[in-house]
Amino acid sequence: MKDLTDRLGTLFSLGDITEKRDDLAFVSVAPDLLRAVITHLRDVEGFTHLVLLTAVDWIEGGQFQLTYLVHNRTRARDIGLRVFIDREEATMAGIHDLWPTAATYQRELKEMFGIDFPGSPRIDEEFILEGWTDIPPYRRDFDTKKYAEETYFHRPGRETFDPATHMKDKLYPGEAS
Amino acid sequence: MALFELDRSQYPEAKADGSLDIDLASGKYLKLWQGPQHPGITGNMSVELTVCGDEVVEGRTHVGYLHRGFEKLMERRTFIQCFPIVCRICVPEPDFNEYCYAAAVEELAGLEVPERAHWIRTLILEMGRINSYMMYLGGQAGSFGMGVIGQWATYVRDLMLDRFEEMTGARIYHMFILPGGVRDGLPEGFAVRMEETLREVERALKDINDVMYCNAVFKKRTVGVGVITPEMIEPYGVTGPNARAAGVAKDVRKDQPYLVYPELDFEPVTGSVSDIYTRADVRRRDVHVSIDLIRQILQKMPKDGPVMTRLPNVLNWKIPEGETYIRGECSRGEYGYYLVTDGSGYPRRVNVRGPSYTHAMALLEKLIVNANISDVAGLMVSLHTYPPEIER
């Protein structure tokens, strides 16, 4: 992977590079460089398969990490591009024109993390959640326990029996144990 | 009521943003919902169809009927507590979740897995592949009115579940592959009983081939329908048998071999044109490959040795900061886990990459246009999608 990251480094200003395995590396890039880097990887370096696009919420640093994982099948290797964006103004340019499937990922990220991709097809359409009014649920500050306690109620539960006591009471009622 | 002629001039114009200008009040178009409660739908999802006569002009996939928030749940559980959750993401082939999660944790935690555990993991994944294909065969045949194939396939799947039960103690969610290895070795006499099961699978496949694949009605309904061209494969993220049917030999087992696949002799099954028929045929031939792989595994695997490495105290197990991606070739294509850790005792983020995410959304919405309503169910099943992978 070093040959690839070296080549990329001569063309673009890259951030942290983590070589995880011989066939997997993660590289940080600035948001405004993402499009140029990923297009270069697709068109020149043969990373034609968009494996996934997802987000990680680093709430402590006030940032979202977007991970674009692309795969080169001929060379059997992957590179993950990490893009850090401001958590308060979570907006990023879409890549749905490069990979049509990216529109689905972007729609999900808008709903689950509140990250906007202006111009992405059906970006404001509900994807999984229907009638959701709370903060995007995959953000770290969404309290699942509190939500569950406020939304659902505890089932009173069934009457349960300790088998030995139950059978004794049933078969020999009134006898002292 | 006026009859519609199949005339493209009847079709809606595209607006500037690419969406179709559909005027339902014109009477030319009709909205139809296929699903979520419909025999011609795969699992808990629905497709909103806009039809002109009996031809589909637009289809939109809707999911969300099964969302259980697995990825979020895992952020609040320790690494070992996540292990029994992951298999529940996919009912028909749960073991891939166990393998990908375990391998990701092992990589980030620096655990070495005993060799025998790798063999048993490979065995389980191939057994699960056969089961998944059997469910598919039943669904694919059923979508064209051949209900009996589903019964035969379910019978064979049940025999394989018996093997799972004796090996793992469970039939559906096995919870057998855990970080560090597998829970146990193979039971006494397992290879003999597995061979009997494999022969039953082969016998059923021959019957299914005679009744389904050689059936003139099935061929007429499926050849040339729902074609995935090689040019669509990368833009639409097509993997697995859907891609291989188009002649693209994409198979993670060969491209980036994992577990003990480098020691096994097999070739990925490919086709020439990825229509419904060829995709079904690739899967049928893939079952034969899995049968052969299981026989090779049982012959070559070490008969004894450890199957589990020693784990740290799992109640207080902290994994160093890092991120990784682990992939494997499941029956539907590339399955992967993206795991991020932050040095605490809980995963920072787990992202499940299931093949259905691309196949059932963007790809299906593309293929469904111009299909006949009666072909929609068959087309959808032919992509072999499971909605839980979309809404993890």
UniProtKB/TrEMBL annotation, chain A:
Chain segments carrying region Disordered: 158-177
GO MF, any single term: NADH dehydrogenase (ubiquinone) activity
InterPro entries recorded: NADH_quin_OxRdtase_su_C/D-like, NADH_UbQ_OxRdtase_30kDa_su
Sequence ranges assigned to domain NADH:ubiquinone oxidoreductase 30kDa subunit in this UniProt record: 27-147
A Pfam family recorded for this sequence: Complex1_30kDa
PANTHER family registered for this protein in UniProt: NADH DEHYDROGENASE [UBIQUINONE] IRON-SULFUR PROTEIN 3, MITOCHONDRIAL (PTHR10884:SF14), NADH DEHYDROGENASE UBIQUINONE IRON-SULFUR PROTEIN 3 (PTHR10884)
Similarity comment: Belongs to the complex I 30 kDa subunit family.
Protein name as catalogued: NADH-quinone oxidoreductase subunit C
Source organism (scientific name): Rhodobium orientis
Lineage of producing organism: Bacteria, Pseudomonadati, Pseudomonadota, Alphaproteobacteria, Hyphomicrobiales
Automatic annotation (TrEMBL), chain B:
Role played: NDH-1 shuttles electrons from NADH, via FMN and iron-sulfur (Fe-S) centers, to quinones in the respiratory chain. The immediate electron acceptor for the enzyme in this species is believed to be ubiquinone. Couples the redox reaction to proton translocation (for every two electrons transferred, four hydrogen ions are translocated across the cytoplasmic membrane), and thus conserves the redox energy in a proton gradient.
Source organism of the structure: Rhodobium orientis
Cellular component annotations (GO), alphabetically ordered: plasma membrane
Membrane topology category: Peripheral membrane protein
NCBIfam families, A to Z: PRK06075.1
Stated name of the protein: NADH-quinone oxidoreductase subunit D
Domain NADH-quinone oxidoreductase subunit D per the UniProt entry, residue ranges: 151-392
Domain of life: Bacteria
PANTHER family noted in UniProt: NADH DEHYDROGENASE [UBIQUINONE] IRON-SULFUR PROTEIN 2, MITOCHONDRIAL, NADH-UBIQUINONE OXIDOREDUCTASE 49 KDA SUBUNIT
Location of the protein in the cell: Cell membrane
Any one GO molecular function term: quinone binding
Record key words, sorted: NAD, Quinone, Translocase, Transport, Ubiquinone
